[in-house]
């Protein structure tokens, strides 16, 4: 029983450390950005009329610092992903994903 408790505690600690590391990484990348999250978000929302932000993150994708937004589209279960360059503020890409493909991506 003690072994199970120790193993569970170790797993919980690893998960918490991973979450903290992810937040620190996001903060570090955001500090490097010349375009704020709010400005990039407005740019992304302009590409999806009446869209709402489901998720947002900053990432270094293929050597390019970018804000990535997943937007819900009214009247559909599809998700539109809009990537905005975190240095120039330009839209890098706009991709529509079905709810089914989005669910597969999360697995």
Please, could you describe this protein's structure?
The protein is built from 3 helices and 4 strands, in the order ααββββα. The chain is an alpha+beta fold. The chain has helices at 2-32, 37-47, 99-106, and strands at 52-61, 64-72, 79-85, 91-97. The chain has a domain at 33-106: Nuclear Transport Factor 2, Chain: A (Roll). The chain is flat. The longest helix has 31 residues, at 2-32. Helix content is 47%, strand content 31%.
Task: Quickly list its features.
107 residues, alpha+beta, Nuclear Transport Factor 2, Chain: A, 4-stranded antiparallel sheet
Please describe the topology of this protein.
Layout: H1 2-32, H2 37-47, E1 52-61, E2 64-72, E3 79-85, E4 91-97, H3 99-106
Q: Please, how many helices? A: 3
The CATH topology assignment of the domain at 33-106 is Nuclear Transport Factor 2, Chain: A
Give the terminus-to-terminus CA distance: 31 Å
Averaged pLDDT, please?
A: 82
Largest sheet: 4 strands, antiparallel
Helical content class: 40-55%
What is the beta-strand fraction? 25-35%
Gist of the model:
With 107 residues, the protein is α+β, with helices and mostly antiparallel strands. The protein has helices at 2-32, 37-47, 99-106; strands spanning 52-61, 64-72, 79-85, 91-97.
């Amino acid at each position: 029983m003690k072994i199970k408790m120790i193993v569970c505690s170790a797993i919980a600690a690893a998960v918490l450390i991973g979450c903290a590391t992810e937040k620190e990484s996001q903060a570090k990348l955001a500090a490097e950005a010349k375009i704020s999250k709010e400005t990039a978000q407005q740019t992304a929302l302009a590409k999806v009329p009446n869209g709402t932000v489901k998720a947002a993150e900053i990432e270094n994708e293929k050597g390019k610092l970018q804000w990535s937004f997943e937007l819900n589209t009214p009247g559909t279960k599809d998700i539109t992903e809009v990537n905005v360059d975190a240095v120039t503020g330009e839209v890098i890409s706009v991709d529509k994903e079905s709810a089914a493909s989005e669910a597969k991506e999360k697995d």
